[in-house]
Specification:
By secondary structure, the chain is α/β, with parallel strands linked by helices. Helix content is 35%, strand content 31%. It is built from 3 helices and 21 strands. The strands form 3 sheets. The chain has a 16-stranded parallel sheet that branches. Strands 8-11-14 form a 3-stranded parallel sheet, with no helix packed on it. A two-stranded antiparallel ribbon has the order 1-2.
């Protein structure tokens, strides 16, 4: 079938139905591609390589003031100086500027670039205070701030990943906090910072900071994660930093399932054994009853035969006597 369209001042244009169908199909495909490309993609975890074991990794030295506890490894390279180490409590290893630290610095560059390249992204306002965010990649072309509380909601998925990208600085206010709910884990939270990060006094911070320049944790800040600075220094002041480790999420379920299966199997076996024993007992009783009835019947038949024989003998004796008398 063909359609004719008349355009004033021009010749008639003949359009085939098949061509029209093809155009509609192409338009639909293009619209679908546009919709998919604009959709929010799930963030993927940022591989840290050998930097994973470090809670503090610097490029221009580590400075500490006051009693600070570091639950993980520390190191700095190419500047290897660590000041205030006398008041540091380190549960991991102090690699200073050794080969392990140098390898971790190389892996840090890879991790930083990976985090910076994640997307597509959702734009965020300068301050994250009061926000409740789902897993994803969030981007600010300039700085990121946090005043008050930020809630990261994994929606029941403990493997959900949150990636934050800042074009310049990260600054959290005094007393600010990051709350993890519905399975969210600090090991799956990453902050890629285009310049430097400053964590406020008495704040509670969660996630791994990957800063291009320096990182400062002010007095009393508590961190569940890592402070990894590519080129600058890491400055500490009476802090507690614990390396974020993802909790196993299948062990309890597997144990419960195994226990339930074992209990069910044992119960089923016991019930089956009991039923079998009952059936055997009933069969034995039935067999004994049948044997008893057969024995009684046999005895009765024998008694009947004996009575018959006695009667016959008496009859014969009577006939004998009658014949003799006659």
């Amino acid at each position: 079938m063909k359609f004719l369209k008349y355009v004033p001042g021009t010749k008639r244009v003949r359009i085939a139905a098949s061509s029209l169908t093809a155009l509609v199909a192409l338009f639909s495909a293009g619209l679908l591609v546009a919709l998919v490309s604009g959709a929010q993609a799930a963030a993927t975890t940022v591989p840290l390589g050998t930097a994973d074991s470090f809670v503090v990794l610097a490029g221009a030295g580590i400075t500490n003031t006051g009693p600070t506890t570091l639950n993980g490894d520390i190191g700095t390279f190419p500047t290897t100086s660590i000041s205030g180490s006398g008041s540091l409590t380190i549960t991991g290893a102090n690699h200073a500027g050794d080969a392990v630290t140098q390898g971790a610095k190389t892996d840090l560059v890879t991790a930083y670039n990976t985090a910076a390249g994640e997307g597509p992204t959702s734009p965020i306002a300068a301050d994250l205070g009061g926000r409740n965010l789902a897993p994803g990649v969030y981007n600010s072309a300039s700085s990121i701030g946090l005043t008050g509380a930020l809630t990261l909601n994994a929606g029941g998925n403990p493997s959900a990943v949150f990636v934050f990208q800042a074009g310049s600085a990260l600054t959290t206010a005094s007393g600010s906090t990051i709350n993890l709910v519905n399975g969210a884990q600090a090991c799956n939270v990453f902050w890629q910072i285009g310049s430097s990060a400053t964590l406020g006094t008495g704040s509670t911070f969660r996630g791994t900071v990957l800063a291009l320049t320096s990182i400062t944790a002010t007095t009393g800040a508590t961190i569940e994660g890592r402070l990894l600075a590519r080129n600058g220094a890491v400055t500490l002041d009476t802090n507690t930093i614990t390396k974020a480790t993802c909790a196993a999420v299948t062990a309890t379920t597997a144990t419960t399932a195994t226990s339930t299966t074992a209990t069910t199997a044992t119960s089923t076996t016991a019930t089956t054994s009991k039923s079998t024993a009952t059936a055997k007992k009933a069969a034995a009783a039935k067999k004994a009853s049948a044997a008893k009835k057969a024995a009684a019947a046999k005895k009765a038949a024998a008694a009947k035969r004996a009575a018959g024989a006695a009667t016959s003998a008496a009859a014969r004796e009577a006939l004998r006597r009658a014949a003799f008398t006659g």
